[in-house]
Amino acid sequence: MTISPDVYAQGVDAFLQQSLAEWDQGLRAHHQGLTGEQPDAGQVRAWANCQRVLQDVLGELAEAQPELLACTLAFEYELPRERGRRPDVILLTRDRVLVLEFKDHPFPTPVEEAAHQDQVAAYARDLQHYHAASHGLLVRPVLVYAQRPGLREQRGEVTVVGPDTLGAYLRAEVQAGPRQFDHDAWLNADYAPLPSLVSAARRLFEHEPLPAIRRAESAGIEETVAALVQAARQAHERGEHHLALVTGVPGAGKTLVGLQFVYARTLGEDDGARDAVFLSGNGPLVSVLQHALGHKVFVQGVHDFLKQYGAHRKRLPEEHIWVYDEAQRAWDAQQVLEKRGHATSEPEDFLRLGAQMPGWAMLVGLIGEGQEIYIGEEGGLAGWNAALEDSDKSWILHAPQKIIHLFPNAAQVVSNDALDLTVSLRSHLAEDLYRWVRALLDGDEAEARGLTERVQSQGFEVYLTRDLEAAKAYVRTRYEDAEDKRYGLLASSKASNLKTVGLDTWNLGIKAYQAGPWFNNPPADPKSCCQLTHIASEFVCQGLELDFPILCWGGDLKWDGQAWVSPVPRTPAAGKRAPEDPHRLRLNSYRVLLTRGRDGMILYVPDQRPLDQTYGHLRALELPELPL
Predict the structure, then answer these.
(1) What angle do CA 275, 279, 281 make, to 5 degrees?
(2) What is the pTM of this model?
(3) Which pLDDT does position 308 carry in this prediction?
């Protein structure tokens, strides 16, 4: 038997000889070691039902299949680094891992069943891909309803059984023969899940190592950071001025690259020069990261930075390296004139400032694709090329090959495709999610429909519903007791129709300064996103993420049977600027909203006649409806 704060495991033979009282005492000690708290009465009752079912089933099965006695049971195995995510039982056989999740619900609602099914499927997915000893093993998810005899169904990859049908399932899964993997080694193997952006930032700046994630390694994160570190050394040693542009799809890790690079130049092993700062025009992102880190040293607002050092001011910053997140959203000259009173674009301001820095300077621009959502950001990368032409210094440009042609004004060009991040890390293994979103917003129904099944098969659940309460019930059920999981309401800032269904995006929308608590605070906190009372718009959630957002579809982007349409905006008030292409801004807003999820998302389309065609179009993409 293995009992520790991390693992409570024993062989099946030992489990069958143990009394309920002995087993319960060990599990209580394990639970208290994990949580620091005693289990409540409901939890103890659920454990007793689980123990009863397992002893009955395994005892009977072991008589006919003695090889079962060599299997190992792990109870309440907490997935490391993921507080609260504990599969009820893991059964290690000779050649596979069975993940058993027990539920006491005799009459679960359809939406609860869907949440239970997706919960155990996610446990199996994460063990398969992030648990070092599970690579190459079969990992099977099993949902056991302890009070529903006679149940036996296959729902996708999840086997659903009752107490009397579990034995037949195990009989087929447990085979005779020598073990093909070491059970003790499995119980102690490393588990390296994909951290959220906020979690990764916190670990970096608290000097905790980031997990060695195979997916991040294959996406080229380390190569990108290394390329930036090398360029910075060259700029410093040779007294040069470098502009490096890193491109990537939503969720590809651009912000994480920027933070890792700043860390390497300030607190890491590069040279501890403390000469880099991470800048963003995304106020909520700045708020969330500063809230998580507990200070404002390494992460600052770009507009405040330029207000202090831009516009031909004589003050110079201490840092020689500036990492500008979402640099394609840099303000053009007209927007700067309206906001700060001088007609110099932000790209011009940065390059002018770099030219004044003693010795050398490096600017890193992190470029998101198709995410310009504010007026004044629509110039994209053209503003940076214009700034290069007007600069007093010769800038060396580092960029991936696909955008080199946009910069004829660069004095010297270094093409490096390590600076192009093409794989989304946000949505775990759903490599096709961004392609699906692009096809959806391009109006390519056939392409989007073809990708729907691929995205779902990659473990990213997308549900469609017209029942907001069902959507809320799903996320609450799925992430019950999962302290580190975050879910919340998202909506377009222009979705005025949502007010009629109780979602007033103006009065219930969170502001930038509220974003830190909304994204970071634990689920029970009144300010947490998990309360499902307040809404984050595209402006608040851009660059950030939730495990399972509920996207509330607005009347500002509707399907008319042929294409997406958006209302003609009202004429702006005197002195206010009209967008160059308001429809593109709407599409980009929904591109941001549709790419925030890590585990999946629910698309809630209010039951309003003007949105009937939109709902019908989404159904035509073969998105599953959330069961009611």
Answers:
(1) 165
(2) 0.77
(3) 86
